[in-house]
Amino acid sequence: MLKQFTLAQLADVLAATYQGDASHQVVGIAPIESASQDQLAFLDNPKYKKHLETTKAGVVILSQELAQFCQSNALIVDNPYFAYATVAKLFQREKQFSTGAHPTAVIGQGCTISETASIGPHVVVIGENAVVEAGCVVGDLCRLGDQVHLYPRVTLYDGTHVGARSIIHAGAVLGSDGFGFAKHQGQWKKVPQLGHVIIGEDVEIGANTTIDCGALGDTVIHNDVKLDNQVQIAHNVEIGEHTAVAGCTGIAGSAKIGRDCLIGGAVGIGGHLSVCDNVAITAQSGVSKSIKEPGVYSSTLPVQKDKKWKRTLARLNQLDKTHERLKQCEFAVGELLMREKAESEK
Amino acid sequence: MLKQFTLAQLADVLAATYQGDASHQVVGIAPIESASQDQLAFLDNPKYKKHLETTKAGVVILSQELAQFCQSNALIVDNPYFAYATVAKLFQREKQFSTGAHPTAVIGQGCTISETASIGPHVVVIGENAVVEAGCVVGDLCRLGDQVHLYPRVTLYDGTHVGARSIIHAGAVLGSDGFGFAKHQGQWKKVPQLGHVIIGEDVEIGANTTIDCGALGDTVIHNDVKLDNQVQIAHNVEIGEHTAVAGCTGIAGSAKIGRDCLIGGAVGIGGHLSVCDNVAITAQSGVSKSIKEPGVYSSTLPVQKDKKWKRTLARLNQLDKTHERLKQCEFAVGELLMREKAESEK
Amino acid sequence: MLKQFTLAQLADVLAATYQGDASHQVVGIAPIESASQDQLAFLDNPKYKKHLETTKAGVVILSQELAQFCQSNALIVDNPYFAYATVAKLFQREKQFSTGAHPTAVIGQGCTISETASIGPHVVVIGENAVVEAGCVVGDLCRLGDQVHLYPRVTLYDGTHVGARSIIHAGAVLGSDGFGFAKHQGQWKKVPQLGHVIIGEDVEIGANTTIDCGALGDTVIHNDVKLDNQVQIAHNVEIGEHTAVAGCTGIAGSAKIGRDCLIGGAVGIGGHLSVCDNVAITAQSGVSKSIKEPGVYSSTLPVQKDKKWKRTLARLNQLDKTHERLKQCEFAVGELLMREKAESEK
Questions:
Q1: Phi, psi angle pair for C189, to nearest 5°
Q2: Does C288 fall in a domain?
Q3: Is residue B340, in this structure, part of any structural domain at all?
Q4: Does A122 have pLDDT greater than 70?
Q5: In this structure, are B192 and B71 located in the same domain?
Q6: How far apart are CA A33 and CA C203, in angstroms?
Q7: Is the Cβ of A228 closer than 8 Å to some Cβ of chain C?
Q8: By residue range, what is the domain housing residue B188?
Q9: Which residue of B153, B167, B230 is in closest CB contact with A230?
């Protein structure tokens, strides 16, 4: 059932030129840093060109401009991210839908599984004394540790792992597709999201919280992390042990949050950045650069009476001009002082 | 089964006075700009008085003060919005609840419908090769195009249309009532939400995203729009083709977003405004006025160390006073310079 | 079935020392202000020491340092909040899961209950003409008033009360555990959330909104409150009559919101504070202190063109230094003016 494609076959699908061994076979996809000989990788951003020197990928999708730096077999295309989206679709597992409830799943002793829960038809493993309440949906290839508790209407997409003793509250969704699209001729092309969600042990996840699966690789929530209600975790985020995240906070793709952090409510954390261990962030703040030193960070903006706030806002919008005026004023004062000094020294 | 009421009957229900033809019949409700002879409209905000000159509405609900400008049949009341709420309830379709699963719906070839999904008892049409996963609820009069994929536990309220190939992730809710209430004697009166949600083709909608139905008229998401998780779209919003909206963003009622826009995560967009095509808005920004020029817009406020931020905030709160001090300082310097010049010219 | 423990038994469980009557029995837990002779309370924050003078609690968990001020029976521990979490677990009701649909619930005349809804096995009472749509989950000991309407997939955890005529939209979750954890030796310990959610009459709750149960005592939404979609209400919040809260707003634990307030979208309200009656808060604002005067409050930050905003932001980050520079400039001008005056008086 393993899907495999030769370099020549892929070139054909993509209408791409290629360099290297036409008969080289790949059986999967991985990030360029970790891909092996039987895997395909892609390189879109020239910033990561250096990976071409060390990658072990069997095939790399890249642009003409970067092809010269590539020692591996290569597929040469105009838009590598778009081409990757096309190839990734080839490798996507075909889903068979279960329309019943309890199937061939391996369910541990002492479990309580609601009759209205749906358990995927493939190899699902549920640990001992787990509870799956009404209306839950557990996809194929999911694994739930001992004493996991899914409150009503939790949805686990295929391949989600939940560690022992973790608690997931009603309406939470784990493993939904990451928000990945490649623009091509003015139209969005969906980039298949091939990774999964891996939840550690003793994690608690709040009601209606959402955690997307990884694009490639996984979204990982480590042991003893606590997420409040309506938190949104994008693809490939990683959250370190014992970190707590309050309600309504959103963490963008590939952000890496350290251990023992306290993230306030409604905080926004940008993508592709990292927050070190032992950081606290106050409510409604925004993180748009990596944080490399432990401590408390903030951009919380508390209310004032509306009338006062409107004046403050007007002044804020003039701030650049105000600064210029201050500079001119300082300059004039400096001149006055100099002339006064010159006068007194006469 | 069509509901119809004469002007005199409606005046009776509302204990209103009226002007015009007591026997004139209306069979529905529409916005004042588009209402026809057999429809009723209302006018609450004097700002829209000009519509009275051109409206074709069979009956208009309005205040005494505006009645003189109305050529149509009119219902004259103290609080037109409250009276509208009362009348709208008369026209609301009575819902019959299905308590089973698969009914008389017209379901295309090759569809996969979970046994735990609920499909409304009235005329539901589902296109070919559509997938409706476990726990979904598809209300009456819904239409799903070919290859639509509803992941588990999606809820479509009555009358929702979803175009071909669109994907809706787990827990999303489309067509819930807009947030519309009229205050009357200190108490909220629910304004029936009579419109629907219309989703174009190739749209993707993230997990636990919510889209309210229109109050009158519809909430419209055009082709190839991509909405991330936990986005909130209020009643009568319209989003143009190819626009992408990142997670946790909220768009208030009747806002009109253009094509090819990129809206960052946790952005707030105010009601009754428009954003033109090709606008990008950075994460956590707020839009409170219409945007009429393409470009990048921002009010993202990134964190600082808390100690520094507290000082910045203190200064921000003094900004109006600081500005005043700068003005006085400039004035004093101006006077000094003038006197110095006068002195030197002596 | 009532659980009861003597002071000595509890000391044993906690490995705590105690003072007072070893055989004194308690049957439940309550806040220190309201606990009675047969209830246990805890005191963690020395700020609330004064309650020791007046409490009627049968047993108080506290630290060695505060034990001298305690007239009641006391359990003396290093970390009172952690010890409380342990004891609270002893008193938690053991849940029996229903795996079927309709049970022994008392259901009023004229109700419409979907066959795919799950109704808890214990004493549930549902009023007349209530509607419970597909996929809803109604936990044990819930009470729904007459004409309550639960749209599809609403989840009510055990013990939730919903007053007459209230409407709850799809995907909303009421009664999920509050976000309460005690840190102990670097690990989070779950603090059992023992309270409930109490919803008044004529309340409307939007799609995918979440309301946590109280930690001790209840989370209370009073009559005629209107909550939009994706609102998050933390444990022990109280919201006064006729208040309306727009979408995506989050209210942190134990905040108390007054009557007739209008809270805009995506507002953040901090924990343990109060907002008085008749307050309006504009969208995306943050409330971090109690508001004691009616009026409009704001910290909404509207977008500018990104280029201009970046300059404004740079100036904002220098604001403290700018202020210092203005002070020096003013000082220099003051000196110049003084010397000029002295000169002219010569």
A1: -115, 125
A2: yes
A3: no
A4: no
A5: no
A6: 54
A7: yes
A8: 121-310
A9: B230
pLDDT of amino acid C110:
75
CA distance C148 to chain A (A): 21
Give the number of domains in chain B: 2
| Cα(A299)–Cα(C195) distance, integer angstroms | 33
Q: Is residue B346 part of a domain?
A: no
Residues on chain C touching A111 (C-beta within 8 angstroms)? none
| Closest approach of B209 to chain A, Cα-based (Å) | 10
A chain contacts of residue B310, beta-carbon cutoff 8 Å: 298
Instruction: Assess whether B276 and B165 both reside in one domain.
Output: yes
Q: Does C328 lie at the interface with B, CB-CB under 8 angstroms?
A: no
CATH code for position B216:
2.160.10.10
Mutate to test the interface with A, among C115, C158, C188 (most CBs of A within 10 A): C188
Is the Cβ of B131 closer than 8 Å to some Cβ of chain A?
yes
Contact C306 B298 (CB under 8 A): yes
Give the mutation candidate from A107, A112, A210, A229 for the C interface (greatest C CB count, under 10 A). A229
Residues B74, B143 share a domain: no
Partner residue opposite C266 with nearest CB, options B137, B250, B336: B250
pTM of structure? 0.92
Buried b (16+ CB within 10 A) or exposed e, B294-318: eeebbbbbbbbebeebeebbebbeb
Whether A165 and A263 share a structural domain: yes
DSSP assignment of C263-297: E-TT-EE-SS-EE-SSEEE-TT-EE-S-B-S-EEE
ipTM: 0.90
Report the pLDDT averaged over residues C256-262. 98
Residues in chain A: 346
At B73-101, the pLDDT tens digits run 999 999 999 999 999 988 887 766 554 44
A235 is catalytic: yes
| A297 and A203 share one domain | yes
A223-274 pLDDT per residue, tens:
999 999 999 999 999 999 999 999 999 999 999 999 999 999 999 999 999 9
Residue B73, φ and ψ in degrees, nearest 5: -60, 145
Instruction: Say how far apart CA C277 and CA A145 lie, in whole Å.
Output: 48
pLDDT tens per residue, range B113-171: 777 777 776 557 888 888 888 889 988 889 999 999 999 999 999 999 999 999 999 99
The rounded percent of chain C whose pLDDT value lies above 70 is 95
Which of C157, C176, C311 shows the shortest C-beta gap to A206?
C176
Using a CB-CB cut-off of 8 Å, the residues of chain C touching B266 are 266
Residues A295 and A163 both lie in one domain: yes
Catalytic residues of B: 235
Dihedral sign, Cα of residue B102, residue B108, residue B109, residue B113: negative
> What span, in angstroms and rounded, lies between the C-alpha atoms of C157 and C198?
11
Asked whether the beta carbons of residue A297 and residue B304 sit closer than 8 angstroms, the reply is: yes
A282: nearest CA partner in chain B? B306
Nearest Cα to B114, choosing from B131, B91, B95?
B131
User: DSSP labels for A59-71?
Assistant: EEEE-HHHHTT--
pLDDT higher than threshold 60 for residue B103 = no
Same domain (yes/no): B59, B203:
no
Smallest Cβ distance to C268: which of A206, A283, A340? A283
Tell me which chain B residues have a C-beta less than 8 angstroms from the C-beta of A234: 228-229, 247
pLDDT at A125: 82
Tokens of A114: 């609601």
| Between C184 and B295, residue with greater pLDDT | B295
Q: Catalytic one among A149, A161, A169, A235?
A: A235
Q: Which H or E run includes B88? A: helix B80-91
Of C91, C106, C133, at which residue does a domain stop?
C91
Residues C71, C146 share a domain: no
Q: Which residues in chain C have Cβ-Cβ distances shorter than 8 Å to A305? A: 295-298
Q: Which two tokens stand for residue B242?
A: 């190819």
B236/C contact by beta carbon, under 8 A = no
